[in-house]
Amino acid sequence: MAKSGAQKSNLMKSIGPGLIWAGAAIGVSHLVQSTRAGAIYGFGLIWVLIVANLFKYPAFEFGPRYAAATGESLLEGYQKLGKWALVIFIVMTFGTMFSIQAAVTVVAAGLAGQLFGIALTPAIWSAILLGFCMVVLMVGRYPLLDMLTKIIIVILAISTIVAVVAAFSHGATEHPNFQRPAVWTVSGVAFLVAVMGWMPSAIDISVWNSLWTLERKRQTGHAPTIRESGIDFNIGYIGAALLSLGFLSLGALVMYGSGEVFSSAGIAFAGQFVGLYTQSLGEWSRPLILIAGFTTMFSTVLAVTDAFPRVLRRTTELVFPTVKTTITDDRLYWIWMIVVAGGGLILISWLSGSMTMMVDIATTLSFLTAPVLAFMNHRVITSSHVPLEAQPPRWLRYLSIAGITFLTGFGLLFLVWRFVI
Predict the structure, then answer these.
(1) Which band of pLDDT confidence, cut at 50, 70 and 90, is reported for residue 358?
(2) May I ask the CATH class of domain 15-419?
(3) CB atoms < 10 A from the CB of 176, how many?
(4) Rounded to an integer, what distance in angstroms lies between the CA atom of residue 304 and that of residue 201?
(5) Is the CB of residue 294 less than 8 Å from the CB of residue 112?
(6) How far apart are CA 333 and CA 370, in angstroms?
(7) Domain boundaries in the chain?
(8) How far apart are the first and last CA of the chain?
């Protein structure tokens, strides 16, 4: 009995990084892309979400597995593969970090304007949200991030489930003369790629998860086993996958066939997003939809605001070992946070009227880089410096290879379809 109690206690000490991962993942990919998928194609693209969640699973699972097995983050794993792997990750991070920060923040800004009823520009709302996130991280560091994420995920799950149940009880709203759009066109394939790019998220955040796993270990003093870190990750991953289906269902049941054309501006998109639900489900649903939408995006902004500086701090220390002796960890973390947040705000001020374009660019870049990162994660977790007993089982290795093949093939299909045909 005592042993069972100790095991439960250790498991609870390990729970956290997977939920923060879910908080980062359940954002633009769910609220914007999954909802748009349902709104444009109904339930016709449900296979896209299932395939993306299935084939990306190994690449994400290898992050916490590697951290639990070695006590290091995936960044150290990349370095052990060779400088080429670390350089590739750095280039990809710098190529996407501003667009990712901007995309998630501007969507949250649009919903904040709707929720609080204060008419500010997307740039000002974005600055307020990023400033608040920075204060949260400055005051509470990782422990507060962990606690807030758990609360937000519970609120998000409950509000989304209630909204989905209400939508199913209401039924579909397809107009009699509605013409169903074709999927296999240039624009259709481009949209498929944009949806899969962040479904359930960009593979970059496997690195974030490995760092959060190590931070949780420092917080609790407990080194998670492979099993414990796997349970924590699977709770977050399965939850994120189910909620993506929920948001697609909301789009399909409430928006599909309505004839509404979505605005590309963040504030206007948020207004349409809420307005269509209240028109179909009733005014009672407005607070519910706003809470579900805003908590979805705020959890992502908070996680991303912490993750990029955390990753860039450790990357800087690996590339320039002498930096750690001249600049403290905290200072380096805050320097990178200001750089990423500032770059995101500049991008928002330039493209504040093109929110969906910004999202599609960010998600497409993430999809095209996904096979490379998935390959690197596979190489790291199966390398000789990972204990044999901690390496993934055979079925997971095969699924990883299948995922790399799928992501590569579909990426090439998109490039050929987009630029050749």
Answers:
(1) low
(2) mainly alpha
(3) 5
(4) 12
(5) yes
(6) 26
(7) 15-419
(8) 66
